[in-house]
Amino acid sequence: MSPAWTFVCPAGELLPGEMKPVFDEATGVPILVINLDGELYALEDRCSHEDFELSAGAVDPAEGSIECVLHGARFDVRDGRALCAPAYSPVPKFPVKVEDGGVWTRDDRD
C-alpha cells in the first residue's frame, strides 16, 4: 500500500521563495515544502545535524539552499544534500505534486 498524500495548501498560496511546513499524519514526520523559482520541493523539516526544524531558517533562492538557524548548516533544497558543516548527512527528500488546485506531499519511505 502506498502512503497517503498529505494536503499542504492551495496551490496559489505557495509563491516563489516561500515555504510551508506540514505534518504527515500517517508517518508522524514533519515535512517542509519549498517553492524555489516556481518548482516545488519537499524535505523533512528536521536538520540532520541536531534535530531542529529547518522551517525556522531562511531559503537562499540564488543558491537553492535552506539554512538551519541553530548552527548554520545548509542543505540543497532540490535533493536534501548537506552543503556545509556542521551537517554531513542529507535530509530526506519527498515527492510533491500539484493536483485539484492543491499542493500535496508524502513521506514515501518504506
From TrEMBL:
UniProt keyword Lipid metabolism, yes or no: no
Metal-binding recorded as keyword: yes
Recorded hits in SUPFAM superfamilies, A to Z, give:
ISP domain
- Offer an example of a GO molecular function term for this protein: metal ion binding
Q: Which InterPro entries match?
A: Rieske_2Fe-2S (IPR017941), Rieske_2Fe-2S_sf (IPR036922)
| Stretches assigned to the Rieske domain | 6-105
- UniProt entry keywords in alphabetical sequence: 2Fe-2S, Dioxygenase, Iron, Iron-sulfur, Metal-binding, Oxidoreductase
PROSITE patterns given for it?
RIESKE
Q: Can you tell which superkingdom this protein's organism belongs to?
A: Bacteria
A Pfam family it matches = Rieske
Query: Any idea what this protein is called?
Result: Benzene 1,2-dioxygenase
Q: What species is given as this protein's source?
A: Pseudoxanthomonas broegbernensis
